[in-house]
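TL;DR need structure tokens for one chain.
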Amino acid sequence: MTRNFLPRPIPEAELVNLLDLARRAPSAGFSQGVHFLLLTGEELARFWVTSGGAEWYGAGPHRMLDAPALVIPLADPTAYTKRYSEADKIEHGLDKADQWVVPFWITDAAMAVQNLLLLAEERGLGALYFGFGGTVEAALAEVGVPAHVLQVGGVLLGYRAPDDVPSGSAVTRPRRAVGDVVHRSEEHTSELQSHSFISYA
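>> reply
TL;DR here they are.
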């Protein structure tokens, strides 16, 4: 993850191409309810002020605000409930959002974000996926995002500054061993029970 960017714009055509490729992620029922809000230039500067990000991120040690582009992945649940109300899907009983055990609109958005991060790395760009705080909902409403559409964090894109170095939790905490995250089925029950699982309670 890049946290120090150069204030150098990325050509519009390249940004659109990145997002065109990133959106080609799996989509439940091919509902295609994932959208990208792309902010650059004055729109991005205004968003940072409205959302409180200018104050929050500007006070930190990194140069996140120098990134020339911000992509906000958006997930529209109604695209999925509408799709699963159609004749070939209605039997699944997923025509209402609260009937989904896993909200695939979030899952699909996350997969599109992963595509975007990999594409940015492949093209030599810096990228940072992060979560919003503060008054981001008001800032999104100001740019026309409907209230029922969910934001799924943000992705900063730009050119990595020469002094950018790996930082954050990934450099202070060890990566878990593969044996701690890959588990087998019933014939390995005793082995599975010996592993410590993260509790989300």
